[in-house]
Amino acid sequence: MRYAFVGLGHRASMYVDALLGDWRDTGTIVAFCDTNQTRMDYYNELVGERVPCFAPDDFAAMLELCDAVIVTTMDSTHAHYIVAALDAGKRVIVEKPLTIDAEGCAAIAAAAERSTGSLVVTFNYRYSPRNSAVRRLIVEGAIGEITSVHFEWALDTIHGADYFRRWHRRKADSGGLLVHKSSHHFDLVNWWLGAAARSVYAHGELRFYGAENAKARGLAPRSERGQGAPGLGTDPFILDISIDPRLKRLYLEAEHEDGYIRDQDVFTEGITIEDNMAVLVRYDNQAMLTYSLNAHAPAEGYRVVFNGLGGRIELEVCERSWTPPHAAIDPSAASKEHAAGSWERLTLHRHWQEAREVPIEQGDGAHGGGDRLLLNDVFRGPDGDPLARQAGYLDGIRSVLVGASANESMRTGRPVHLVDGGTRIADS
């Protein structure tokens, strides 16, 4: 299989590393496409031989060289590249979210229906052992029919803050966190329940990050970016991208080409996404979801509770127990502390029985070995997976439209209804 990449930022590294490592027998990298030649040069160094590089305007020419395209561009551009690749009959592998809005979903759905190619959305959280264990319990009927789900996700001031430094801070580029980040979570609920959303109602605000919030809390005026800022090296909110070799090569040393600043200050102007969100969803199986996302918590993790006619399932996950103040200054050290302070617990509590903890089998690598399972599915294909973890374009659409509907609900103050199995926002 001949693989081409469009979008050569940090997110592409997992797939490039895979094709140069344990999955090198499944295919070869034959082309790169990006707005920035410096980033393509970096990945060419990893490949060890120069593969052809293309500007976005030459994407059609690149398609002639490959069998499959891996899309890891800015979220708002996903639909453009996916549709073009599907129309060329290619296999498409796309990072979540599939796209950012209803229009992009409609264009991708139409292309997928007419294409001889195929599309996979890489929802790696499905493959995490703890999330797979939840799916297994539900499928086995451990608590019977699910009536409601409560899902709370906390992003800390390492991970959460980073969305407010990057292009993700602009909703027109990312769809906001309810699309870019929460599409992971909405997909999990859709998959866990085997159901599609019917109605969505949401609230959301920017309460912590941004210039106005900083001013309201009496913070001094900030520099626009981390490099050269007076607080660089001491301020826990200022990222030093010169320390991380990969970030330095991909962004700091590439700025001269496209002007993209990877270390924007989180307390400056220009942020159009929310950092506090609450969503209420009703599904076609009558289950209800209450969901919240906070992007400035002191610790990172999530808690999800399922209430069923036969009992209750609780999953609690701590991905980082506290946020060290040097996290942005020295991300590698923070990453080690991240792993050291993590824990997870899955509890099954049936009616009339004592609660019991359900063991979670761990694998090697990121997300409890989940990333390796995902990469196996992507590059070798799923092999009779009873949990049906590989996600297609309909799964991608259903997850995006929950977030897009939440954005619309926040804008209008009204609930938003979905039709056609959760794949289209109803006409108003």
Question: Summed up, what is this model?
Answer:
The protein has 428 residues and is α/β, with parallel strands linked by helices.
Characterise this structure.
With 428 residues, this protein is an alpha/beta fold. The chain folds into three domains: 2-123, 3-Layer(aba) Sandwich (Rossmann fold), CATH 3.40.50.720; 125-208 and 271-425, 2-Layer Sandwich (Dihydrodipicolinate Reductase, domain 2); 211-258, no CATH class. The chain has 16 helices and 16 strands. The strands form two sheets. Strands 14-13-12-11-7-10-9-8-15-16 form a ten-stranded mixed sheet. Strands 3-2-1-4-5-6 form a six-stranded parallel sheet, with helices on both faces. The radius of gyration is 21 Å and the shape is globular. The model has no long low-confidence stretch (mean pLDDT 95).
Q: Keyphrases for this structure?
A:
428 residues; alpha/beta; Rossmann fold; Dihydrodipicolinate Reductase, domain 2; ten-stranded mixed β-sheet; 16 helices; 16 strands
